[in-house]
Amino acid sequence: MNKRVLIGLGFVALSIVSLPMMTLMSPKTVVASDHDDGETSTKGRNVNLTDLYVFREKDQNNYAREDDLVFVMNTNPRSVARQQYYFSTSAHYEFHVSQVANKDDSPTGRKDITLRFEFGQPKSNGQQGFQLSAISNGQRFGSAFGITTPLAPDPKSTPLVNNITIGNSKIDVFAGLREDPFFFDVEQFFRVRAGAAGIGPAVGFKPPSQAIDFAKGYNVNTIVVRVPRSFLRGNSEAKVFDVWETISTRDPRTGRFNQVERLGRPGVNEGLILTNDFLNAFNSISPNQDLSAAAAPVRAEAKNSLLALGNSSERADVLLNALLPDVMRIDTTIRSGYVNAVNAKGAPIAGRMLLDDTIDQTLSLLTNGKITSDGVSYNGPGPGQGHQPLIPQFPYLANPN
Questions:
Q1: Domain spans of the chain?
Q2: How far apart are CA 160 and CA 174, in angstroms?
Q3: Nearest to 366 by CA among 284, 272, 274
Q4: Which of 186, 183, 258 is nearest to 25 (CA)?
Q5: How far apart are CA 149 and CA 139, in angstroms?
Q6: Is the entire prediction scored with pTM above 0.85?
């Protein structure tokens, strides 16, 4: 199997490259996290990202329009069943998009289009209003308003889909609680990691009949957007896009918004970094800083980490060159799916579907095929795992527990 295909079968958890970030920034001035990591006393879980999904809608639904893409931002991990949770009223939840001329081009981290969500105070029925702003190169060129879907007595009740018009484009938005689609035996991963680091007994992952999915039964606050490719393209002819998501919170002293969360490719930062400060620092920067001169020590440490995992020096270099900067690339001319295609650098370029088993793909990549699965899948079969079926139409995520 060649190196490009090998990289395409998984992703590097970019927390590896954030280890020495403390040499670049002071940990005392940063409060950020990723997928329920990097917790601090100054921010709640409703401004904590879990996952980003980007896919062509027709690959999820045969009856969908040809031109539409779906973006999914999940937040507030470990939301328990039958309890209402809210989006922060002092945060910006944002999808950022770069237009890419060629699938083999290096990511720029340029914010050609930003979709910004701002939420109002909850009403007595649990509903929140929101404003969606469309921003291009820092200038807002359109906005519209919508409402969330509050938790109903019947979780299978029809979700509210906001039909929004910005310019000549129709954009549909769902915001509210859904079941967390992520699946991973996190506790066993921590045990495996501890053994590999020499700070615990050496153990492996459990068989599927015994593996436990930590996300089973939990919900997330999600924002799901259906957006036409033509809207993202603007005046360009782009058919390839780089996408990442951020959350920024308002500093009550200055009124300014500071980025506290960032996520592109699926990652398990909390699984490979032991220190919150490192996670906080990585989540506060933009993709266009990942390859900056100031971040050279970060890449050096990343290579050392990959070597420690048993990779050759050549393979470590290939991985780093393929997967930085951290963005989710989607070539809209091919079928979506995280392992469906890679570019000349070996970077995944087909977005991410809701049922993609990114954990198995990651384990195989980082261990060079020595570990191929955590024993968990979306549907089971073990008693400690299994999610509700996805619904057949937008917003697609399963009904909330």
A1: 3-180+215-356
A2: 7
A3: 272
A4: 258
A5: 29
A6: yes
